[in-house]
Amino acid sequence: MAKKETKKADLNVLTFKFQEMAMPGTGMLNYLPNPDTVLREQGGRIQVYRDMKDGHLGSVRRKRHAGVSSKSWSLQSGQGSYEKARSVETHLWNIGLRDAIKQMMKALDFGYQVTEIVWENVNGMLLPSMLIDKPQELFRFSKAGELEFTNEKNGPIPPYKFLLVRNNATSGNPYGEALLSECFYPLAFKKGGLQFWLMFAEKFGLPKAVGKIPPSSSQTEIDNLTKVLYGLVRDACAVISDNGSIELLESKTSGTLPYESIVRWADREMSKAFLGETLTTEQTDSGGTRALGEVHNDVRAELTTDDCAMVEAAFNTLLKWIWEINWPLDAEIPWFQFAQPKDMQTGELERDKKLYDLGIRFTEKHFVDLYGISPDHIAEISNSAQGPMFAEKPEARQKPQANRETVVKFAEGLASATKGLTDPIYELVANAKSLEEVRDGLIGLFAEIPVEAMGEEMQAAFLAADLAGRFDIMREAGLA
Question: Domain range for residue 452?
Answer without folding.
Answer: 394-476
